[in-house]
Amino acid sequence: MSSRLSRREVAKAASAAGAGLAAAPAAGSAQPSTGNRAGPERGAALEFPPGFLWGVATSAYQIEGAANEDGRGASIWDTYAHTPGKIRNGHNADTAADHYRRYREDVRLMRDIGAKAYRFSIAWPRVFPEGTGRPNPKGLDFYGRLVDALLEAGIAPFATLYHWDLPQALQERWGGWRSRDTAKAFADYSGYVAAKLSDRVRHFFTMNEFYSFVDMGHSRIEAEVGGAAVPVEHAPGLKLPPAELYQVRHNAVLAQGLSVRAIHANGRPGTRCGPADNVSTAVPLIEAPEQVRAAEAATREMNAGYLTAMLEGRYTDAYLRTAGRDAPRFTDEDLKAIAEPVDFVGVNVYRPEAYVLASDAAPGWRAVPFNASHPKMLSSWHVLAPEAIYWAARQVRSLWGVEEIHVSENGCGASDEVAADGQVHDTDRVMFLRNNLLHLQRATAEGVPVKGYFHWSLMDNFEWTDGFGTRFGLVHVDFGTQKRTPKLSASWFREAAARNAVV
Ligand code: FCB
């Protein structure tokens, strides 16, 4: 595209900048601040509370590579990615970003971009190659070395125990998450890791994005892409009948509760943990009290199989009614385990599930379809609606009284290339970051207890079925040479983290 702007484009750019400025002092955040290091020209400070954690996130399968190193067992994602036709361009993550070997360089990068916390995941099949039984000390050693390097660099480690890479052995032995034995095995693995690492790791995320590995891995789901219905699928790529799907969902939240118990029982006193879920967020299209209440009710129901069950210890009446004869089978003991108190809730927020309006008809709200012209980020699913991050945090607080919330993921894919000047000009990601953090700052200014923000992702990686085609990093990775190049968004992040404010 030509770098010269037409008059029409210049006019559009100017009015967009104006709109950005007008939106800056978000309602509820107008408290003048004394500690702001921004120049006086910025007006009201858009600061986060002292001690707010600026973090970056990754997951094991997406970056580590070293698929056959040091006794690692196979995971369901190895099997899936090596199945012809599953991953765009036939990619797999055998090497990925080679982080297993380059972790020291990557920790330096984190430090250089001002990250104070790092959310990474532990590959279960590195620690228990067969899923259960004899642990593989070399596998755990890697995470010990990583954690030491992080602590040396002044970066707080937040370890996720399950970011979808189930040991293949458990898929074969028990049908994976179809069996509650897998939930028990997950708890054993969680307790083992907590016992070994909690002298240095104080925060554990149990499981990542329930819907993404349960529903997308075990049922037929289609997304609309350019007017066509396209199947979306994750490993293990099963298409189960509804009753079995409900049971898999149940086993997954049971695993979460048992894992929390095991971490508290085996970790050092004060070890904190909670899930990292992609909470489905209903955003009130119009901000008025009855609309806000309707959106809350919608969010509670949209999460009935996952967060609502975990934080309320029961399935909603509507959920069980809809399931009918397919409803999961469970005991009171199960519900108690599922509701095991968590220390924090992580929310992964990329977009809202829906805009909603209050309605006189049951259930009291209706979803408003996204307009055909609603702006999107690069990924076909990624409608741009930065206010979702505010509502997700606010509703997790108002619905369930959660006292510690982390944004465990937020970010966007972009078509990033290293330009002739050696830089990656990801202006769309900078725009995305600034606007999401504006809305997050509004939440903290209103007293919503958001303690940390983890940008997805530290660096470009294997984006599941998209392969290496969709880049989410603050740092560009050339997957041929493994050269890392911080993008302009990394400079934005560094500045924001240093000032603890939206910049
Ligand atoms: C989330 C996943 C993460 C990454 C981002 C883009 O759903 O948790 O691994 O793929 O989306």
The termini sit apart by: 28 Å
Task: List cofactors, ions and other ligands.
Answer: beta-D-fucopyranose
Sequence of strands across the biggest β-sheet: 1-2-3-4-7-9-12-13
The tally of beta strands, per DSSP, is 15
Strand content: 5-15%
Question: Care to describe what's here?
Answer:
The chain is an alpha/beta fold and 503 residues long. Helices cover 39% and strands 15% of the residues. It contains 18 helices and 15 strands. The strands form four sheets. An eight-stranded parallel beta barrel has the order 1-2-3-4-7-9-12-13, surrounded by five helices. Strand 12 (405-409), helix 17 (427-445) and strand 13 (450-456) form a beta-alpha-beta unit. Helix 17 runs parallel beside helix 18 (488-499). The longest helix has 25 residues, at 242-266. The chain starts with 6 loop residues before the first helix and ends with a helix. The model is unreliable at 1-42 (pLDDT under 50). Beta-D-fucopyranose binds at residues 59, 62, 208-209, 212, 278, 348, 409, 456, 463-464, 472.
Task: Summarize the entry for a quick read.
By secondary structure, this protein is an alpha/beta fold.
